[in-house]
Structure formats: structure tokens, C-alpha cells
């Protein structure tokens, strides 16, 4: 795996595309960034979305991928470094994670649906009264979701806090228009199964990975 820093070029020709590459509307910006990151992997005709990415602001993105990004007319040369943390059970790591946190349920008709854990936690609260309690509900639901992820992915949550929650609406057509929640979590975890944890890091956490969710950034605590 490679962890790469991609930075938009400051050249006049790229700057002229500023409104297209960085729209003011959050949903359109997310869609534009999704396409931007693809441009750094477009040289491989067999490419599929096997990378994770996160918007770091200011035209900079972090990308975790099984191969380094290629040349792109829109980005400076990628700063790519091998990503192979040497972890052992008991290691404590600080983390930040932007995720679309959902749980999968089977409806009476047999279809599977993915329910946003924060919206589920807010369901019993009248819509007009949700704003004051949104972050509190997100804290509770986000930690429970992360603990469930850890039980399957080789880590234990020791501290976790939610710094933000928002609903994203990238462009789409009619009923197919995507709409999903994005939760920002940070805190401390303890590695319990290094192999399982590293495998899951590469796969990402939650859904909406094409739109900049799922990449957990870690450092030793």
C-alpha cells in the first residue's frame, strides 16, 4: 500500500478551472473531488476504485492505494510513501476518521437497506427539535458504530469523540440522487489483531468511500 499526498497545481490553467474543481456547494464539491482523485489513476485501463481518499483542505488530498497515483495534468507530482505500519497487539494509536456510518438491515420484503446510525438515533426526535441534540446523538451512535467496527477489525476503542456530522447530497438523477450522512470521529484505539486491522485499513470503514469517506488516519499515541 502507498499513502500519497496529492496537491492541485497552482498553474494558471488549473486555477482557471477553480469554480469547477472547488464548487461552493458542498455536494457538488464532493462530486468534483471524487472525479479529481480518479484522474490520478486514470492511466490504468483496468483500474477500479481500490483506493481511499480524504480532503485535507486547500486543494490537498491524502490517498491510500495499492499502487502510487500516476501523472495527472491537475496535480503536482504525488508525494507517495510505502504504507506498512509495524503493529503489535496492545499498540495504542491516535486516529481520525471521516465515515458514512451505517448498519445493514433486512426489510420484510427481503431487501437489504443501509441505515445511517445517526439518523436512526434522531428518528424519535421531532424534526424541529433535532438541531440542539444532533451532536449528542452522533456522539453516542458514532462510538457504538466504531466499537462494532473494532470488534470485527482487530482494535478496541479507548476514546472516541465526534467532531462533526453533516448530510451530503452529491448531484444525481431523481430517486438515484445520493444522500448520506458523514461523521467525523477522532480518539484513541488499541490494536488487538494487527493483521485484521491492517487489512481493514486498506479496505476502509463504512460506505460512501468514492466520496472521500472511510480512510482512517493513524499515528502512535
TrEMBL record:
InterPro entries: CRISPR-assoc_prot_Cse3 (IPR010179). It comes from the Bacteria. Gene3D superfamilies: Crispr-associated protein, domain 1 (3.30.70.1200), Crispr-associated protein, domain 2 (3.30.70.1210). Transmembrane segments: none annotated. SMART domains: CRISPR_assoc. This is CRISPR-associated protein, Cse3 family. It comes from Rubellimicrobium thermophilum DSM 16684.
Amino acid at each position: 500500500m502507498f499513502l500519497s499526498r496529492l496537491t492541485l497545481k497552482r498553474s494558471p490553467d488549473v486555477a482557471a478551472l477553480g469554480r469547477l474543481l472547488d464548487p461552493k456547494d458542498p455536494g457538488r464539491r464532493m462530486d468534483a473531488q471524487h472525479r479529481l482523485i480518479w484522474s490520478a489513476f486514470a492511466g490504468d485501463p483496468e483500474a477500479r476504485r481500490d483506493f481511499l481518499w480524504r480532503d485535507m483542505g486547500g486543494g490537498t488530498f491524502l490517498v491510500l492505494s495499492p499502487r502510487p497515483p500516476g501523472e495527472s495534468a491537475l496535480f503536482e507530482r504525488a508525494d507517495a510513501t510505502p504504507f506498512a505500519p509495524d503493529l503489535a497487539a496492545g499498540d495504542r494509536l491516535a486516529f481520525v476518521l471521516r465515515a458514512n456510518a451505517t448498519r445493514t438491515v433486512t426489510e420484510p420484503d427481503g431487501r437489504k437497506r443501509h441505515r445511517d446510525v445517526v439518523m436512526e438515533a434522531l428518528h424519535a426526535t421531532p424534526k424541529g427539535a433535532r438541531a440542539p441534540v444532533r451532536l449528542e446523538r452522533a456522539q453516542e451512535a458514532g462510538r457504538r458504530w466504531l466499537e462494532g467496527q473494532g470488534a470485527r477489525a482487530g482494535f478496541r476503542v479507548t476514546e472516541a469523540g465526534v467532531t462533526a456530522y453533516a448530510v451530503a447530497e452529491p448531484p444525481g438523477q431523481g430517486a438515484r440522487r445520493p444522500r448520506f450522512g458523514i461523521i467525523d470521529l477522532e480518539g484513541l484505539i488499541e490494536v488487538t489483531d494487527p493483521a485484521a486491522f491492517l487489512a481493514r485499513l486498506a479496505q476502509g470503514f463504512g460506505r460512501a468511500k468514492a466520496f472521500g469517506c472511510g480512510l482512517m488516519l493513524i499515528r502512535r499515541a
